[in-house]
UniProtKB/TrEMBL annotation:
Membrane topology category: Lipid-anchor
UniProt keyword Cell division, yes or no: yes
Any GO BP: cell division
Record localization: Cell outer membrane
CDD domains in the cross-refs: OmpA_C-like (cd07185)
Keyword Membrane: yes
Native organism: Roseovarius nubinhibens (strain ATCC BAA-591 / DSM 15170 / ISM)
Xref: InterPro entries: Bact_OuterMem_StrucFunc (IPR050330), OMP_bac (IPR006664), OmpA-like (IPR006665), OMPA-like_CS (IPR006690), OmpA-like_sf (IPR036737), Pal (IPR039001), Pal_lipo_C (IPR014169)
Name assigned to this protein: Peptidoglycan-associated lipoprotein
Keywords: Cell cycle, Cell division, Cell outer membrane, Lipoprotein, Membrane, Palmitate, Signal
Oligomer status and interactors: The Tol-Pal system is composed of five core proteins: the inner membrane proteins TolA, TolQ and TolR, the periplasmic protein TolB and the outer membrane protein Pal. They form a network linking the inner and outer membranes and the peptidoglycan layer.
GO CC terms of this entry: cell outer membrane
C-alpha cells in the first residue's frame, strides 16, 4: 500500500485518540486510588478492645508499638563526651527506655549506628564509632534485649547531622543512633 499524506494524517489522528483515551483512563485510575480513605493505614486502631475509636493512628508517633513512637517519644539516640564511648547517666536513661520498648515489641530488631565528630582521622573515628555502638549494644543486652536482635555499624565522621566548627555541632555528631526495623535479622 502506498503511503500518502492523507494516510499519515489518519494514522496520527488514530494514535492521538488512543493517547488521549489512555491519559483519561490513567487520570481516572489515579483519582480512584487517591480517594480510598484507608489507602495508607490512616484509619484509627482500637488498642483498648472496646470498639470505641481511641484516636491512635497505627504507625504514628501516638502508636506506642510504632518505630515513629520509638524515635520521637522513647528517643533513638544518645550522645557521648569528646573522645569517649562510656555511657552517661542521661544516655543510660534513654537506653533503659529503648530496652523496654524492644522487649515489648519483639517484632522489631535494631541497628545501632556509631558516629563521631569531624575531629581526628577517618580510621580513628570509625573505630570510635564502633566502640560507641558496641557500648550501646552491650547495655541493651544487659537490660535483657537478645543479642540476636541487635546489630552494630560504625559510620565514624561520615554522616554528620551538624556541619560547623563549633562545639555545639561537634556534640550533636558524637552519637549513637538506634534504628528500628521490622523483625528477623536486620
Amino acid at each position: 500500500m502506498k503511503t500518502t499524506p492523507t494516510t499519515n494524517k489518519r494514522e496520527r489522528g488514530t494514535k492521538m485518540k488512543t493517547f488521549q483515551k489512555a491519559m483519561i483512563l490513567g487520570t481516572g485510575l489515579l483519582l480512584a486510588a487517591c480517594s480510598s480513605p484507608d489507602r495508607f493505614g490512616d484509619s484509627t486502631v482500637d488498642l483498648n478492645g472496646t470498639g470505641a475509636n481511641s484516636g491512635v493512628i497505627a504507625g504514628s508517633a501516638s502508636d506506642p508499638t510504632s518505630p515513629a513512637y520509638f524515635s520521637q517519644t522513647v528517643g533513638d539516640r544518645v550522645l557521648f563526651p569528646v573522645d569517649q564511648h562510656t555511657l552517661t547517666s542521661t544516655a543510660q536513661q534513654t537506653l533503659n527506655g529503648q530496652a523496654q520498648w524492644l522487649l515489648r515489641n519483639t517484632d522489631y530488631d535494631a541497628l545501632i549506628e556509631g558516629h563521631a565528630d569531624e575531629q581526628g582521622t577517618r580510621e580513628y573515628n570509625l573505630a570510635l564509632g564502633a566502640r560507641r555502638a558496641n557500648s550501646v549494644q552491650e547495655y541493651l543486652i544487659s537490660q535483657g534485649v537478645p543479642s540476636t536482635r541487635l546489630k552494630v555499624i560504625s559510620y565514624g565522621k561520615e554522616r554528620p547531622i551538624e556541619i560547623c566548627s563549633e562545639e555545639s555541632c561537634y556534640a550533636q555528631n558524637r552519637r549513637s543512633v538506634t534504628v528500628i526495623s521490622a523483625g528477623a535479622g536486620v
